[in-house]
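Hi Y.,

Following your request, here is the sequence exactly as I used it, all 313 residues.
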Amino acid sequence: MNIELRPSGTDTGERTIVDGDTGATLGRIDVTPHGPGIAEIDVWVAPEARGRRVATSALESLNAELFKSQTQRWYCLIEATNIAGLRAAGAAGFTREGIARGAGRSDDGTPLDLIVVARVADDPPGPSPRALPDLPEGRLTDGVVVVRPLTADDASLTYNLRVLPEVSGRSVVGTPMDPAIVARQCAESASRWLAGVRAEMTIHRADDDTYLGEIAVFYSEPVLKEAMIGYSLTPEARGHGYAARAARLVTDWGFEIGMARMTAGTATDNIASQRVLEAAGYHRECVQLAKLPGPDGGRIDNVAFAKVRPSDI
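Below is the corresponding structure, written out as C-alpha cells. Let me know if you'd prefer a different format.
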C-alpha cells in the first residue's frame, strides 16, 4: 500500500494518513513539539484500515520527515493493552524505554500507566530487535499438547487456575484475588512479551483444545542468555505428562532463539514438579537456601534445575 501523509488544514502538527493510490483516508497522525528537537507522536488508524500495516508505514514516513527537520527525539505513549500499536511502533524502529506512571486515563477516568516508546535521529531503521520473538506460526506443538500466547480471552480460565490454593501458595509473585486484575494482566501479557520480559503461554490438548494450564518463559538474565520457566496445570490435567511436554517445547524454543541455559526451580517438597523437570531433560543442580517466599510469609529452600543448549555442552 502506498501511504501518504498530508497536512490537515492549518494545523501543521496534524497529518492525514491517505492511501496514495485511491485517495481514501486511513487515519491521522499528530505531532506535538515538546521543546527544541523533541516531539510526541500520536497515531490513529480507522477500524476498516487496521491490520494492513498502515500505522507502521505512516510512522516510517514520519521518521524520514522528522529526521530532515532536525528533530532529534520523537516518542509515543501507548497503553499496555494496545498490542497493535506497540507492534507498529516496534516495526517502525521505536524502542521501548519504560513506563510513564499515571500518564493516561481509562474510560472511567482512572489513572492509567502508559508505555513509552521512542526513536532518536541516529537510530537504525526498523524493525527494532526483540529479545523474545513470536512463536513460529503463533504456537508450539508436539501433536499432543499445543502452547500458544496468553491473551485477554484466557482471563477466566487463568483466574480459576491461579486462585487454586496449590497454585497460589507456590507462586513467587503471588496471585491477585481480584478477577479484574487477572483480566488486565492477561490483556497486557503481549506487551511484556514484546518488551522481552517474559513470554506467557497457555497449554491446551491438541486433539480437542481442552485448557490444561499455563507456562511462561522469564528472561531473567539477558547478559548471560539465561531464561527461567514456570508452569501450572489444572487438577484434571496433572499426571498425564502434559507439563513435561510443554516444558520441552518452550525450552527448545528458548534454545532456538538464542538462550544458552534454561532454568527452573521448585520447593523441596514439590516432588511432582521435580519429576516434570527431569522428564523434560532438566538436571538438578543444587538446593538454594531460603530462595523462595513461603506461603506463611517466611522463606523456603529452592531446588534449582537447569538445561543447557546442546551445542554448548
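The CA atoms of residues 37 and 70 lie 7 Å apart.

Thanks again,
Q.
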